[in-house]
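DM from R.C. (forwarded with permission)

"hey, sorry to bug you on a friday — could you get me a structure for this? deadline for the figure draft is monday and I only need the backbone to look sensible"
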Amino acid sequence: MAARTISAYADAKTASVIERIAQSEDRSPAQIAAAALRFYARLPAEAHAAFRRIEKLGTAQDIDTLAREITRKTLDAEWEVAHRQLVTEMKTGEIPASEDDILSEAVRLTQ
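My reply, with the result:
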């Protein structure tokens, strides 16, 4: 799929945060913005509207609470993805019979 450039305006504080994030992740500000846009674009219209209402009517604390909840759910989803991938990649075999067998298998799997 061909990429397109989309312009966006951000206040100085947001732009500064994006620049710091981009630097710490060794990515460009445009890449950070593109990731944010991909996420937002996947949300349903109801979520867009709710976010706009929270921005308009809520406090900074309300936005921070929302960000913490999104962070928690994102980390939960990452764990689920990693767990699913691990289970898929695991080889099924005999169940180790002793603690020494379990330890040996654990060492083997981590090498």
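R.C.: lifesaver. The mean pLDDT is 91.
me: no worries. Residues 60-89 form the longest helix (30 residues).
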